[in-house]
Design a protein that fits this description.
heterodimer, A: 122 residues, alpha+beta, four-stranded antiparallel β-sheet, three-stranded antiparallel β-sheet, 2 helices, B: 619 residues, mainly alpha, five-stranded mixed β-sheet, 28 helices
Chain lengths: 122, 619
């Protein structure tokens, strides 16, 4: 009888433990759950397109500022609201003669954090 | 989420209990006086694991795609065949006198023993779960490497050709089967949960080994505490579960099973147990080379010691032992594994080069053996002291004719020598890995030692000194043995870093061309990076990786240094040559460390920036 009690108790203990671990993992395997971070990236890193995206994983709706430079010359700037957990794509319209053959840098700012991405255009 | 959880919870008994249960029914019937309920329940798990592995190997050899429905059908078919055998062997025939009667009372625990076991198990599981809850997101390096191969099996429906001896098929089949049957992905908690399951059943397999050999319920009960609660986090326990050291975790469950049947075959002269020893040994052979190696040495040492202790009857003993194996069941198991080995699937490590690498004079500083202080640090002072106490106490009551003394002494002696002076045995494998196996014989002897000490304490003439000594040793065992567990509650999870790593992996998988682009990532400063390869599933060695810097220095042979130079010094001529040679055009680094350095290099564009990860493209 004692062996059966041990096996049944262990089975219950393991089911509770596995469920706990599974739920902890499933909840935390999420870009937003209890996390505070952002990301900026080019939509297509392989070509000369300057379309970029900002992802907000700060846990709250946030206003991001961005500035676009060509060889240190500021070409454009703006602000964009991104909802918590959302992604916002931005397609900047820039004069071709000013960016051709230069390094174009996009600086995204949120609070004290700066996210720089840049490309050397042909 | 809850549906997946339910599927996983149901999947575990289906794959890891059912086949083993029916297998035992076919061999022993539903009730047999030779096997207690606890033993049968515990052995269902290791048997099921071996059976599922054998089924998958056979399906692969028959060129049948390994998919969920096929696996479910195969497991049910196997169980049905076992049931038919059981029916034919046991239901239609009257029980013989030999089989009648209740099992021995070894595992009939008293109420207090049951409470002690349950508390020990609760503590064992609680500490492990508390530790795992901070590491449960897939992030461990070894586990990431293993899960690449598991995902390969899932994607292709066939077993992979590793092309290297580092991986063994038994480390991967059960995870692939769990995914294919339940649908729960490998980038979830599923691998860690299965490993925890095996780890907990390792405690049980030690308990039945201790209980059966010493025929003492107290010792079996104490083994739950020693194996489960002492050093519950240190390797080879919680840290090996979270770290994905699959072979060791499964090996620590299967080695006690093998020794259990080895002991019972010889002590009871029973060919069924001899066959089951071979069966569990064969299962281990397909699962982990190092564990197999340790088991072979252990069994050899036990055998030699027993023969040496009974030198007068050596020939008679050998003839008796050989007779046990010259019976239909052991021979059938030998033929089964010979067929598997030569016709169905040969383990990747089974070649002369790999065997040659593991034997002979130690070739590296890490293989020349551990100092005694290192052994103490590896297994833990409390376990070591209790084990040595058990070793000394067993010497007082040694009876050379009984093989249990050879098991107790020979097992510890050989694993200790393998870890301490491997050169004496021509063992050439990393000593720290061998040292982790000391845990098994030490648990065995510590359980004996603790109970024997309590018994001698009761009979002690000087109660005062005995009490002082008893409480001193208990205080030390509990404080030292649980010290690693206390650290668990101080740790901080790195879930955010892991998720940022995964996000960058998803980004690259979606935006790069696997035929033209080549990615290099940094293992040194990026958490959970070994899981990166699962986003691409292109090759085991893809993306390229800068490994731990010490790996690039090897006095015995030159190592490639490109993966290091392309991240550490990308502007040097050597690194530029490496970029040309390898075609690397994307570099993934930690944004806080190498990320700021890379921003100074004119040859690179930065295409991705997050708080933790920076991705650069070489123009």
């Amino acid at each position: 009888m004692s062996s059966k009690i041990i096996i049944i108790s262990t089975t219950i203990l393991l089911i509770v433990s596995f469920s706990t671990l599974f739920v902890i993992e499933a909840k935390n395997h999420d870009y937003d759950y209890k996390k505070i971070w952002s990301a900026a990236y080019f939509e297509n890193p392989r070509d000369d397109s300057l379309d970029f995206a900002i992802e907000n994983h700060e846990g709250i709706d946030a206003k991001y500022g961005y500035r676009i430079f060509s060889n240190d010359e500021k070409l454009a700037e703006g602000e964009i609201d991104v909802k918590a957990g959302a992604r916002q794509k931005i397609s900047p319209v820039l004069p071709g003669e000013k960016i051709s053959g230069t390094r174009v840098m996009i600086e995204v700012k949120y609070n004290d954090e700066n996210y720089k991405i840049y490309k050397d255009l042909k | 989420m809850y549906i997946s959880l339910l599927k996983l919870i149901l999947n575990i008994p289906f794959l890891l209990v059912l086949p083993g249960m029916f297998f035992q029914a076919a061999i022993f019937g539903w009730k047999n006086k030779k096997m207690a309920f606890l033993e049968r329940a515990v052995l269902s798990v290791p048997f099921s694991l071996i059976i599922v592995d054998l089924i998958v190997l056979l399906l692969n050899r028959m060129n049948i795609l390994i998919k969920g429905p096929i696996l479910i059908f195969s497991v049910l078919l196997f169980s049905a065949v076992c049931f038919a055998v059981f029916h034919w062997r046991f239901e239609k025939k009257k029980k013989t006198e030999k089989d009648k009667g209740d099992p021995e009372k070894i595992f009939d625990f008293s109420a207090w023993q049951t409470v002690f076991i349950l508390l020990s198990l609760f503590l064992a599981v609680f500490i492990r779960v508390a530790y795992l809850s901070d590491t449960i997101i897939p992030s461990a390096t070894d586990l990431g490497h293993h899960m690449y191969w598991v995902q390969t099996i899932i994607n292709t429906g066939h077993l992979p050709d590793y092309g290297m001896p580092d991986f063994i098929i038994g480390e991967h089949m059960i995870f692939a089967a769990a995914n294919l049957v339940s649908g729960v992905g490998v980038m979830t908690s599923m691998p860690a949960i299965l490993l925890l399951f095996f780890n907990i059943f390792g405690i049980f397999t030690m308990a039945i080994l201790v209980g059966r050999i010493f025929r003492n319920p107290n010792m079996a009960a104490v083994s739950f505490f020693v194996a489960g609660a002492l050093y519950a986090i240190n390797p080879p326990q919680g840290r090996y579960v979270s770290g994905g050291v699959i072979g060791n975790v499964i090996g620590d469950m299967l080695i006690p099973v093998s020794i259990y049947f080895f002991y019972r075959a010889f002590s009871e002269k029973n060919s069924l147990f001899a066959g089951l020893f071979l069966f569990s040994f064969g299962g281990l052979l397909y699962t982990h080379h190092l564990s197999t190696f340790v088991l072979i040495f252990s069994v050899a040492a036990i055998t030699i010691l027993h023969l040496a202790l009974n030198f007068k009857n050596i020939f008679q003993t050998i003839v008796e032992w050989i007779r046990i194996y010259f019976n239909p069941f052991p021979i059938a198991i030998i033929l089964l594994f010979a067929a598997y080995f030569f016709l169905i699937f040969t383990p990747s490590y089974f070649n002369t080069a790999a065997v040659g690498q593991a034997t002979g004079e130690p070739s590296k500083a890490t293989r020349v053996g551990l100092a005694l202080s290192q052994i103490d640090g590896s297994v833990g002072s409390a376990l070591l002291i209790l084990g040595v106490l058990g070793f000394l106490l067993i010497l007082f009551e040694i009876n050379p004719k009984k093989i249990k003394y050879s098991v107790a002494l020979g097992w510890l002696a050989i694993v200790f020598l393998m870890a301490w002076k491997p050169g004496w045995l021509f063992v050439n494998i990393p000593s720290d890995r061998v040292g982790n196996y000391l845990y098994l014989p030490l648990v065995f002897l510590a359980s004996f030692g603790m109970v024997k000490y309590f018994e001698s304490f009761r009979a002690s003439a000087s109660r005062f000194f005995a009490t002082v000594f008893l409480f001193t040793i208990l205080f030390f065992v509990i404080t030292n043995g649980l010290s690693d567990s206390a650290d668990v509650f101080k740790s901080k999870n790195m879930f955010q870093q892991a998720m940022e790593t995964f996000h960058s992996g998803e980004y690259l998988a979606a935006t790069t061309d696997p035929n033209q682009d080549v990615i290099l990532k940094d293992h040194v400063n990026i958490y959970a990076d070994s899981w990166y390869k699962l986003f691409f599933m292109k090759d085991y060695k893809y993306p390229l990786s800068r490994g731990n810097l010490s790996r690039y220095i090897d006095p015995t042979k030159p190592r490639e240094t490109c993966t290091r130079d392309m991240i550490s010094t990308p502007e040097t001529e050597a690194a530029k040559a490496c970029f040309s040679e390898t075609g690397v055009n994307y570099v993934v680094v930690n944004a806080q460390s190498e990320g700021t350095s890379f921003q100074k290099y004119p040859d690179f564009s930065q295409v991705y920036a997050s708080d933790y990860i920076a991705i650069f493209k070489r123009d």
